[in-house]
Amino acid sequence: MDIFTMVKAAVTVRQAAEHYGLQVNRNGMALCPFHNDRHPSLYVSDDHYHCFACGEHGDVIDLTAKLFDLRLYDAARKLASDFHLAPDKPLPESIRQKWKQKTKAQQLRENEQLCFSVLNEYRRLLLDWKKRYAPQAPEDSLDKRFVEACHRLPWVEYQLDILLQGDSYERSEVVSELTADGYIRKLQARLREERYHE
Fold it and tell me: Rounded to two decimals, what is the model's pTM?
């Protein structure tokens, strides 16, 4: 097993962030160390981080590399050292088992992250459409993209708020609704199409 796989299996982004001095609140938010952040805009979960202000994102190795200005390999080695992982020894059985089997909670987290990521991209698209396709004069006919942006933006922002700040029950309800009938996958495919046609 290579050092990257071992580190990602053994150390969560949140563990590393807190170990290196970031104060992550109960909603997973922290002040972003990559820009002058006055209000927490860095979302930290177990397997990734994302800043809503400056756009920085990645996994535990990316975070460490960025924090200490290291190459990815050196960041992985630093994590292995700081968290007392021996690259020449196999992972403990407990970690290997945990890594192999997706628990219900892990599946929910993955679905939650998918929903969050897709909705966040949709929100950016809608904000762009609202600005780009706004009527220039009262007599102009409304572009369907402008109408969609006005109609869907409040809903998308509400869903994102729940995924960011809701309790586990509220988040799981949102995820269930969004994954029902493959809605979030269809939206993801549509966003891919929009990127392709840009």
Answer: 0.50
